[in-house]
Amino acid sequence: MAININLNDQALIDSVTAKTTAARNLLRQIATSYSPAVFANSLGAEDMVLTDLIVGDTAKIEIFSLDTGRLPLETYALIDEVKKHYGLKLRLYYPRHDLVETYTRENGINAFYESVELRKACCHVRKVEPLQRALAGRKAWITGMRAQQSATREGLPIQAFDEGNGLEKFNPLSDWSEKEVWAYIKLNKVPYNALHDNFYPSIGCAPCTRAITPGEDVRSGRWWWESPESKECGLHVKKA
User: Fold this and answer.
1) What is the average pLDDT score of the chain?
2) Residues in domain Phosphoadenosine phosphosulphate reductase (predicted)?
3) Residue 205 annotated as binding?
4) Which of 11, 12, 25, 175 is the most exposed place for a label (fewest CB within 10 A)?
């Protein structure tokens, strides 16, 4: 969620400046050494930081998003805002209609509430399979994940080989704090999802995302009926 940032906090600003330089240099390296590379933009706060860096630096990195068919209205509004603000038409990947029809026919429209297995099956149809198409033929993909976001992302490396997709995976904001993300957004007037102002720190599909209360973990609003250890959709699987 959007948090109040003291832009007179020089230590914070210095930290953001240093990490911005490091992230920008990494993105340039990726564009040069791992072409063709893509950035999977989920339209959360972190992803908008990376969008701003990539577009501002004219890095040769394609930006795409996954339209699951069940995104919040605010997320679709941000897609339009990205076009207006950056002149960027996001490439959108959609689920295969036959897979969605089979899932809902066999399990029900909201079967993901019934078990972790059915929820992950829905995520596979709406996210994982479209991602696999988006990554086909690429040498690297970039995400906005941070190590502090959840228990499943502790120790998140900046770079690692993704065996499942057969390419390098980069997390340029891995060591960023939530404050640093929002300081960058405020300093650079980056557009962001309006749900962040309504206590949504992490935003996915509408049925699987809710607001949180102060003090709750930032990922507690995602799949809130499950235990923290299962809260990934299959896009990002931490290898043992």
Assistant:
1) 91
2) 38-211
3) yes
4) 11
Place of tokens 């994940």: 145
What backbone torsions phi and psi does residue 171 show, to the nearest 5 degrees?
-125, 80
Domains of the chain: 10-198 (3.40.50.620)
State the helix-helix crossing angle for 178-188 and 10-33, rounded to 10 degrees.
90
Q: Is 122 labeled as ligand-binding?
A: yes
Q: Is the pLDDT of residue 28 over 90?
A: yes
This prediction has a pTM of 0.90
**C-alpha–C-alpha distance, residues 72 and 204, integer Å:** 8
Q: Decide if 102 is catalytic.
A: no
What's 174's DSSP letter? T
Rounded Cα gap, residues 25 and 22, in angstroms: 5
**Dist. CA 133–CA 209, nearest whole Å:** 25
Tens of pLDDT, residue by residue over 68-121, are 999 999 999 999 999 999 999 999 999 999 999 999 999 999 999 999 999 999
Catalytic residue among 54, 181, 233, 235: 233
Beta bridge partners, 222, equal 209
